[in-house]
């Protein structure tokens, strides 16, 4: 037994050593660039999926194995680790740091919950709406970490009020074996807790910067198909906003039926508010009052927030000339240009009003480098870079073309069936592996498959990118799940049951989108010239 325990304790180290050694015959017996690239790809993918080493460290594997096996030069691999999307992310993190530092996120969340009211169903919907909105601009993890303490304060007020009500009742209903006054109180806690992690996931789908997987897709797609020019902030937003809204309502209905019951009238009920609802509303108002009047830094942050969004939308809207048409040279300015410019200005603009002040440092900026450094996800940056390096190796070595040829037997399937299979496969794998790692492994394979079957690559890549975010059935599926689980209101069985329904809703809505409004938006019914050019170039 001791030996088994020691082996289990050292399982990650054993995996790190044994996987490269056991696969080493592949490049040695077949000494060609395809087999060498496949070796690097498999080793990196196993490290990512097993998390035997940190994700960022595993992403560095191509940086030394590609040069050693002669797939890519060291300088060529290094250039893949810092791309345009890295600058885009850095600018967004500057804005997120300002939002967090000056509590603008808390003001938005509390205000939206105050509008929704304290009836359980509407309270859940209010929290979901504010979480979706915040998650559009901040990371899913940060949003969940911000909103859960506010939700927990409301839930604790609900529990305390329920205990008081039960003690005042001539026939006490309090449950002696639980921290919750009644089973219904427990159901409300479960519903509200899970709704926040699901809403964070939904909100992350809406913008190209909403979650790291969207950025990975955008950069890999633009890298593989540089002539496409179809994926930008505006087109992604137009496609994904209806998906998020439909998912939001269906998820709310699903959670409401699962935990609160289908018969309860929750939306337009005219019933008089209960004592508990009034106290919950009072608690929310007290939290909002603690913030005080809106401050100067909050106003500046809000202006930058609106300005960044407007400039992203109007850069190249498609139906009218964008502001980039004012410049003589085309193709030089991207969403990252706007993001970095406004992020840079936040380091310069004073956080105090420009007239004389008694503050010790009236010229202190909106954010400092420490504020930025605290939020900047460098591990994700390196992980994304590792994905680009793998994709570059697959392209140069010819491995992607070889994979495409092996997938030719699927040519008899209609495009919707191929897309559905990709969605189901990706959403299943991502329950046990990290979202960025799963997508990084699958994108090159799905691209090669689409080119081989002469399907518009966007027909499979966009749904797969969205479905990789639906790892919502287990606490290990993504960090927001783990945060919500840590509060102790839900059990794993609750997450599996509720998450399975959300997973099905997500796949259904994404498939609906790609088969309806996605077709005219991205011209999905035809095999585009930019994919044809990539196919011809790759085969030469």
TrEMBL record:
GO cellular component: plasma membrane
Entry-linked InterPro entries: SLC13A/DASS
Regions that span the bilayer: 12-30, 37-61, 120-138, 196-218, 230-255, 294-313, 380-404, 416-446, 498-518
Family that this chain belongs to: Belongs to the SLC13A/DASS transporter (TC 2.A.47) family. NADC subfamily.
Protein's UniProt name: Solute carrier family 13 member 4-like
Membrane topology note: Multi-pass membrane protein
Entry GO MF terms: solute:sodium symporter activity
PANTHER family: SOLUTE CARRIER FAMILY 13 MEMBER, SOLUTE CARRIER FAMILY 13 MEMBER 4
Organism: Sinocyclocheilus grahami (Dianchi golden-line fish)
Locations listed in the record: Membrane
Keywords noted in UniProt: Ion transport, Membrane, Sodium, Sodium transport, Transmembrane, Transmembrane helix, Transport
């Amino acid at each position: 037994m001791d030996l088994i325990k020691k082996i289990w304790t050292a399982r990650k180290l054993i995996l790190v050593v044994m996987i490269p050694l056991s696969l080493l015959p592949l490049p040695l017996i077949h000494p060609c660039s395809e087999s060498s690239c496949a070796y690097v790809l498999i080793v990196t993918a196993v490290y990512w999926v097993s998390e035997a080493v940190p994700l960022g460290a595993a992403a560095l594997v191509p940086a030394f194995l590609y040069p050693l096996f002669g797939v890519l030069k060291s300088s060529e691999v290094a250039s893949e680790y810092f791309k345009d999307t890295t600058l885009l992310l850095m600018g967004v993190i500057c804005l997120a740091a300002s939002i967090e530092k000056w509590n603008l996120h808390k003001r938005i969340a509390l205000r939206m919950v105050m509008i929704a009211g304290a009836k359980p169903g509407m309270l859940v919907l209010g929290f979901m709406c504010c979480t979706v909105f915040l998650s559009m601009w901040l990371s899913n993890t940060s949003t969940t970490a911000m909103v859960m303490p506010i939700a927990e304060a409301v839930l604790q007020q609900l529990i305390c009020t329920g205990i008081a009500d039960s003690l005042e009742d001539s026939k006490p209903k309090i449950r002696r074996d639980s921290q919750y006054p009644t089973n219904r109180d427990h159901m409300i806690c479960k519903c509200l807790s899970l709704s926040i992690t699901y809403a964070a996931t939904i909100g992350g789908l809406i913008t190209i910067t909403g979650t790291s997987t969207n950025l990975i897709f955008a950069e890999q797609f633009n890298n593989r198909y540089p002539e496409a020019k179809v994926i930008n902030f505006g087109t992604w937003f137009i496609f994904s906003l209806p998906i998020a809204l439909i998912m939001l309502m269906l998820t709310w209905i699903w959670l409401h039926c699962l935990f609160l019951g289908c018969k309860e009238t929750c939306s337009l009920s005219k019933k008089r508010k209960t004592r508990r609802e009034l106290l919950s509303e009072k608690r929310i108002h007290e939290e909002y009052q603690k913030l005080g009047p809106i401050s100067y830094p909050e106003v500046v942050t809000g202006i930058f927030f609106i300005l960044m969004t407007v400039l992203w939308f109007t850069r190249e809207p498609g139906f009218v000339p964008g502001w980039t048409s004012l410049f003589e040279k085309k193709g030089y300015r991207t969403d990252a240009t706007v993001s970095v410019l406004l992020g840079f200005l936040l380091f310069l603009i004073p956080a105090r009003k420009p007239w004389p002040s008694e503050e010790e440092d009236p010229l202190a900026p909106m954010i400092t480098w420490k504020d930025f450094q605290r939020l900047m996800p460098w591990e994700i940056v390196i992980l994304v870079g590792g994905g680009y390096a793998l994709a570059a190796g697959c392209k140069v070595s010819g491995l992607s073309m070889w994979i495409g040829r092996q997938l030719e037997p699927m040519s008899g399937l209609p495009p919707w069936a191929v897309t559905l299979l990709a969605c189901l496969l990706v959403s299943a794998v991502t329950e046990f592996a990290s979202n960025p790692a799963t997508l990084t492994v699958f994108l090159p394979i799905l691209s090669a498959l689409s080119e081989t079957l002469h399907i518009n690559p966007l027909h499979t890549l966009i749904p797969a990118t969205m479905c990789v975010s639906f790892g919502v059935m287990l606490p290990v599926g993504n960090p927001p799940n783990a945060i919500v689980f840590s509060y102790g209101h839900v059990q794993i069985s609750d997450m599996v049951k509720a998450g399975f329904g959300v997973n099905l809703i997500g796949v259904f809505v994404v498939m609906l989108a790609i088969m309806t409004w996605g077709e005219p938006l991205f011209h999905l019914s035809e095999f585009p010239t930019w994919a044809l050019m990539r196919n011809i170039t790759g085969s030469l």
